[in-house]
Amino acid sequence: MAQVVDTSDFRSGLKIKWEGGMWAILTCDHHKMGRGGAVIRAKMRNLVTGASMEQSFKSGERFERIVFEEKPAQYQYKDGDDYIFMDMESYDQVMLTEDVLGDTVKYLVDDLEVSFDMYEGRVMGIEIPNTVTLTITSTPPGFKGDTASGGGKPATCETGLVINVPFFVEEGEKVLVDTRTGEYLERAKK
């Protein structure tokens, strides 16, 4: 039996069927109108084509929720425009493009364990851990007098992701990053 959700259930990561396609909710905002009902504005990505769009929905609209079967996998390497993963059950190599992966490519490091989102035998995307360890490849040096409590500085990670880090973090250090928000959490434990 299909799971049904309505606009009040919208959150980042929810996957729904809408107008004959399969969509992932990227962001959503609830706007209360004066006399009318609320309007929900959602930014969505088509899981088949990778195309993104913004759409407004009336409060209470109902949709079929897509529930994926998860399958363990491991990221191996990037080859041109393809990202190569190993299926941990069959040991087959699976190539996925950035269109399918979306923003998760910013967090892919060699040997990262992920889960394939499978739907009717096809990989529709991946689930990554809530935190990953990334190496800082470039950041301006900290200066005497910079404090840990006062702001931060931009830092580029090995994957190209730019995050804000405290002044004491230097190039070559490994840091823990929250993949849901893209924010620095702490220095990685040695």
Q: What's the topology here?
A:
Elements: E1 3-6, E2 15-18, E3 21-31, E4 39-46, E5 52-58, E6 62-65, E7 69-79, E8 82-87, E9 93-97, H1 98-101, E10 113-119, E11 122-127, E12 131-138, E13 153-157, E14 162-165, E15 174-178, E16 183-187
Antiparallel strand pairs: 1-6, 2-3, 2-6, 3-4, 4-5, 7-8, 7-10, 8-9, 10-11, 12-13, 12-15, 13-14, 15-16
Provide the helix percentage.
Answer: under 10%
Number of strands: 16
Overall pLDDT confidence: 87
Q: Enumerate the strands of the largest sheet in spatial order, edge to edge or round the barrel.
A: 1-6-2-3-4-5
Count of alpha/pi helices: 1
- The assigned structural class equals mainly beta
Rg (C-alpha, Å): 20 Å
Reading the helices and strands in chain order gives EEEEEEEEEHEEEEEEE
Q: Major β-sheet, in short?
A: 6 strands, antiparallel
Uncertain residue ranges: none
Distance between the termini: 48 Å
The dominant shape is flat
User: What proportion strand?
Assistant: over 45%
Task: Describe the protein's architecture and organization.
- With 190 residues, the protein is mainly β.
- It contains 1 helix and 16 strands.
- The strands form 3 sheets. A 6-stranded antiparallel beta sheet has the order 1-6-2-3-4-5, with no helix packed on it. Strands 9-8-7-10-11 form a 5-stranded antiparallel beta sheet. The chain has a 5-stranded antiparallel beta sheet with strand order 14-13-12-15-16, with no helix packed on it.
- A hairpin with a 2-residue loop joins strand 7 and strand 8.
- The longest helix has 4 residues.
- The protein starts with a strand and ends with a strand.
- The model has no long low-confidence stretch (mean pLDDT 87).
